[in-house]
Design a protein that fits this description.
The protein is of the alpha+beta class. The chain has nine helices and four strands; from the N terminus they run H-H-E-E-E-H-E-H-H-H-H-H-H.
């Protein structure tokens, strides 16, 4: 008589590479709410989530899609938008009267890199007053946050190749924003969301 092989099925979310259960357990054991950052190809989204035995509870959330309500005319998936999304989340937390001693960043299966959008978002949340700790090694400088290198490049491109400039930055122009005005525009929205303008 043949014996049947028994296969243990892994958790679906682990199989789909959506959840690292070991890392999640460590985060839950901390007892602090999690700052869940989820980047996509088009937007940045972030949530403050608290563990509950009946299911996680979302206490506050923000998305870079909402930035247009505050006058943002730039893209929704760059470093500047990520920082502003963090500020927006902090603003929403304040409006709800929520207080936290500590928020643990939860980046899921995403592997962030130094100077990237994820850390820009965490910096925005911290500037807005949320207790997020992160190493200074991964923080971006003001020039990167304000997208000054891009602004400088676009100014030069407009002088050298006006048609190429109009073609490459048509989305910005359609929204009524000259790309070389990004730093000043970023400062305006940052101030409106309660951030510190340098």
């Amino acid at each position: 008589m043949k014996t049947r092989k028994v296969y243990l099925s892994r958790y679906r979310r682990k199989r789909e590479k959506k959840t690292d259960y070991r890392r999640r357990l460590k985060l839950l054991k901390s007892g602090s709410p999690r700052l869940v950052v989820r980047p996509s190809t088009h937007i940045m989204s972030v949530q403050v989530i608290a563990y509950d035995q009946n299911g996680d509870r979302t206490l506050a959330e923000a998305s870079s899609k909402e930035l247009s309500k505050f006058g943002w005319k730039g893209d929704e998936d760059n470093v500047a938008a990520s920082f502003l999304t963090g500020l927006l989340l902090a603003r929403k937390v304040g409006e709800k009267g929520l207080k936290f001693e500590k928020l643990i960043p939860d980046l899921g299966m995403h592997a962030p890199h130094k100077g990237g959008k994820v850390f820009a978002l965490l910096m925005g949340a911290a500037e807005g007053g949320l207790p997020v700790s992160m190493s200074e090694d991964v923080e971006l400088d003001e020039s990167a946050l304000r997208m000054e290198p891009l602004a400088e490049y676009t100014r030069e491109l407009k002088e050298k190749d006006p048609q190429g400039y109009s073609r490459r930055f048509s989305r910005y122009l359609a929204r009524g924003l000259e790309p070389y005005d990004l730093p000043a525009h970023f400062d305006e929205v940052r101030k409106q969301l309660g951030g510190a303008v340098v």
